[in-house]
Specification:
By secondary structure, the protein is mainly alpha-helical. The chain contains 16 helices and no strands.
Length: 399
C-alpha cells in the first residue's frame, strides 16, 4: 500500500469523507464527525488502509487545508463586525479560551512535570468547534440572547486559539530545543516570531488589498486570494514563522481594506476548499492509535476535565465582567465543550513543528492528536446534549 498514488489517496479521502458526512447528517449530527470517523476506521487502528507512510505523501493537503482554515477565520474579523459583536462577546470568548488554556496547562504540567507538554495541550484545549453548536441551534431553531451571544463567541474563539497557540508553541519549542534556557529567553523568542508573523501577515494583506482594488473580474479576486494564501504559507516556512497567524492576519487586513471583494470570494473559497478540508479531517484522523490508550489514560481524563472546567469558569467570568443576564452567565459555559475542528488543525501543526525534535517530539506529537481524538468522542456527544440542555433551560427552544 505504500506505493499507492497520492491522487488515489486524496480522491478516495474526499469521496469517503463526503459520504460519511452526509450519512451522519441524516441523524442530525455534524458532518465533521463523519469525516473523523471515516479516517479513524481507515487508519492504523482498524483497517490500516491509510497507513502513516501513505498519509505522509498527502502532506500537501494538510498545508492547503490549514491555509484555507486560517484565511476563513481571519476574514470573519472585519472591524465593523467586531463593533457589532460587542464587548460582551469578546470578553466571553477571551476568558473561556484563556480559562481552558491555563487550567489544562497547569494540570498537565503538574501531572507530567513537563511544562512544554502543558503549554501544547493547553493551547489545543483553548479552541472550540462551532459545528456542533450551530447544528444544535439550527436543529431546534433556537432564538434568544443566549443563542445570539453563543454564535458570536464560537465565531470569535478560533482566532483567539490561534494566537494562544502561536505564543505557547514557541515557548514550548524553546524549552525543548534549548534545555535550561531562562524564562526570559523563552518569552523573547516567541514574541519575536509572533511580531514578525504579524508584520508579514499585515504586509501581505496590504499588498493583496492593493491588487484586489485594481481587479475588475470576480474570478480574479479568487485567484489573487489563493495565490497570496500560498505565498503566505511559503514565506512562513521559509522564515520559520507561524503560518496560521500569518494567513489569519493577512485575511483580516485584506478584508478590512477590501471588504466587498474579499467577501465575494469567500463563497468560492468555501466551495473550492470544502473537499480539501473534508479530506484533511479524514486523513488527520487516521493517526488515532488505540495502542496509546494505556499511555493516555489518566492524562486524557485530566485534559478533558480541566478543559471543560476552564471553558465553563472562564465563560462565566467573562459574562459577569460584561454584565450579561443571568441565563447567559449560567449556561453559556456549558455550550462550549465541542473541540474537533481548529483543534485538530492545531494538532497537525504540532506534529509538523515538533516531530523533528527526536523521540520526545514524536511522542508529544502523537500524544496531542490522540488525546484530542479520544476526548472528541465525549466532547462532541456530551457537548451537543449540554448545549441542548442550556438552550432549553434558557427557554430559547421549545420541545
Amino acid at each position: 500500500m505504500e506505493n499507492i498514488s497520492i491522487l488515489l489517496v486524496v480522491g478516495s479521502a474526499i469521496v469517503i469523507s463526503l459520504w460519511a458526512g452526509k450519512s451522519l447528517n441524516r441523524f442530525r449530527l455534524p458532518v465533521v464527525i463523519g469525516y473523523v470517523l471515516a479516517g479513524i476506521i481507515l487508519g492504523k487502528s482498524f483497517l490500516k488502509i491509510l497507513t502513516p507512510q501513505v498519509i505522509e505523501k498527502a502532506s500537501l493537503i494538510n498545508d492547503l487545508a490549514l491555509g484555507v482554515i486560517a484565511f476563513l477565520i481571519g476574514a470573519e474579523f472585519n472591524f465593523s463586525r467586531l463593533r457589532n459583536l460587542g464587548k460582551l462577546i469578546i470578553l466571553i470568548a477571551l476568558f473561556e479560551s484563556l480559562g481552558a488554556f491555563f487550567l489544562v496547562f497547569l494540570s498537565v504540567s503538574l501531572l507530567t512535570h513537563k511544562v512544554y507538554l502543558g503549554l501544547i495541550l493547553g493551547a489545543v484545549a483553548s479552541a472550540t468547534a462551532p459545528a456542533v453548536t450551530v447544528a444544535v441551534i439550527n436543529q431546534y431553531k433556537a432564538k434568544g440572547e443566549l443563542t445570539s451571544t453563543l454564535l458570536g463567541v464560537v465565531g470569535s474563539d478560533d482566532a483567539i486559539a490561534l494566537i494562544i497557540y502561536a505564543f505557547a508553541s514557541s515557548i514550548a519549542y524553546g524549552f525543548m530545543v534549548h534545555q535550561g534556557i531562562s524564562f526570559k529567553q523563552a518569552i523573547i523568542y516567541p514574541f519575536k516570531e509572533i511580531f514578525l508573523s504579524l508584520i508579514l501577515g499585515a504586509g501581505l494583506g496590504i499588498i493583496l488589498s492593493y491588487f484586489l482594488n485594481k481587479c475588475k473580474e470576480r474570478q480574479d479576486y479568487f485567484s489573487l486570494i489563493v495565490g497570496f494564501l500560498l505565498i503566505g504559507e511559503g514565506l512562513s516556512w521559509e522564515f520559520n514563522l507561524s503560518e496560521l497567524l500569518v494567513i489569519m492576519v493577512m485575511a483580516m487586513v485584506g478584508v478590512n481594506l477590501s471588504f466587498r471583494k474579499v467577501e465575494q470570494s469567500l463563497a468560492s473559497l468555501n466551495i473550492a476548499g470544502f473537499p480539501i478540508i473534508a479530506s484533511f479531517f479524514c486523513l488527520a484522523s487516521t493517526r488515532l492509535d488505540i495502542h496509546l490508550i494505556s499511555q493516555i489514560g489518566f492524562l486524557g481524563f485530566v485534559y478533558l476535565f480541566f478543559r471543560i472546567l476552564g471553558k465553563y469558569l472562564g465563560a462565566r467570568l467573562g459574562a459577569k465582567i460584561g454584565k450579561a443576564n443571568l441565563n447567559i452567565r449560567k449556561y453559556i459555559g456549558l455550550c462550549l465543550w465541542p473541540q474537533i475542528g481548529v483543534a485538530l488543525a492545531l494538532a497537525i501543526v504540532i506534529e509538523r513543528d515538533f516531530s523533528s525534535l527526536g523521540k520526545e517530539g514524536v511522542f508529544i506529537s502523537n500524544l496531542a492528536i490522540n488525546i484530542l481524538l479520544f476526548t472528541t468522542i465525549f466532547t462532541e456527544t456530551l457537548g451537543a446534549l449540554a448545549t441542548r440542555f442550556s438552550l432549553l433551560k434558557s427557554r430559547e427552544i421549545n420541545l
